[in-house]
Amino acid sequence: MTDLPPLIKDSSPEGKHRVLITVSYDGTAYAGWQRQQNALAVQQVVEEALSSLTGESITVTGSSRTDAGVHALGQMVHFDTASRIPADKYPFALNTCLPADIRALQGRDVAPSFHARFDAKGKKYTYRIHNAPHASALYRNLCAHVPQKLNFDLMKKSLNDLIGTHDFAAFQAAGGTAKTTVRTIHDVALDKSGCDLTLTIRGNAFLYNMVRIIAGTMLDIGMGRLPEDAFARAIVTGDRLALGITAPACGLELTEVYYE
User: Fold this and answer.
1) Among the residues of the chain, which ranges form H helices?
2) How confident is the model over 90-125, as pLDDT tens digits?
3) pTM
4) Which pairs with CB-CB distance under 8 Å and at least 24 residues apart come from 57-62?
5) Could you confirm whether 67 is annotated as catalytic?
6) Of 67, 109, 119, 220, which is the active-site residue?
């Protein structure tokens, strides 16, 4: 379960209080987290449900701007409200207004100064791969399908080069707006169960498409398309072309967000 900040009940000067909720969603049907003009996003659905529930015009702030097709187990969302609904009851009330592919899991009051995105101290992502000749009928929206044979041991070993504090300039897609590309990867793991591979990675922050680029590069290493030290070379050179493909969005999940 996602780590939450301490329970604080002070109210803002406007008579409103700030609530933090944990949201889980299957991102298949949505154009990402962030509200958009011409497509349906998870943020819009959550805001409309909260507005209907409270009778207010609610704007929410998420901890991470997940892309189209990306899922979340622990997206953290804060909003301000004058509603007297107890914070811990929001999941029960909110889930009656939300579609089945979006669920509120936990709720609590936080200080008016708390910010779901800027107060985050780290995140954990999970990337899932179904490595079999044929795609999974049941889990096709929750994992990437890779029919080629993969060298599991080589992929696992290559990931060690990511751990630590590095300049990950090569690990972002075009359109990234980060002021600095230095990030710290605390730990990374690759596990296997039958035909299914699970990549988990935890760090202080991530660049645009960084985890999907790591997953795609790992797969290219496993297929022999890139050398084992591709990650190390890209960190040194800053060259995006030294890395592999950007893996499909469907395999990615925002698993946890950490706060102090």
Assistant:
1) 42-54, 90-94, 152-158, 210-222, 230-237
2) 999 999 999 999 999 999 999 999 999 999 999 999
3) 0.92
4) 61/115, 61/116, 61/117, 62/23, 62/33, 62/34, 62/116, 62/117
5) yes
6) 67
